[in-house]
Amino acid sequence: MNRVKMLLVEDDAALVELLSWHFARENFDVATTPDGEEALLLAQEKVPDIVLLDWMVENLSGIEVCRRLRRMPATANIPIIMLTARGEEEDRVRGLETGADDYVTKPFSPRELIARVGAVLRRVRPALAGEMLSFADVEMDTVGHKVRRSGAPISLGPTEFRLLRHLLEHPGWVFSRERLLDSVWGQDSEIELRTVDVHIRRLRKAINAGGRPDIIRTVRSAGYSLDADAA
Does the residue 91 lie in any domain? Predict the structure, then answer.
């Protein structure tokens, strides 16, 4: 898979360093700037595959940068995710109406943002999202329906495969049994909540074979989460 070109427009130096490191690990080529006007120049010089854009940046607001990116033919269709501390509904609506594809309110975890970026790429630019999902030492080929852990093949049933895929697409997120039923099985009233527990046990047995660490965390009274620290 080719590296995804990302433009990160953010004036918080510590956050820039943190996000650059995390996205570089996920095979992103990250260009950064704290300046809205420079962001427009960078976007024209080397058209990115996705833009992370803070609402409040130097010289030109994130909203105006978003508006101008949408007006330029070369960047009109680039996915844009707004990053901001402004959580009011009116601000979110304004950002989306200006052309943003998604909106993430600070504070957020890098893993949450990586998952949101992946979701936007799959929706807007599916060719860039690739066919592979990975977390820790688990890799999934979503097209070939193959799963490996530390390079060794893992055999999964269809439901366990869908369940693992959903968790891989949202690492670190805690999903209730109800949410998992809706997302993996669909809204089927015939399926009981304890069915989720049965398939989680089957999934754990398969991916943890050979004494491997358990990366599925059970969150009491909440649900399940993919977490490298679960073990």
Answer: yes
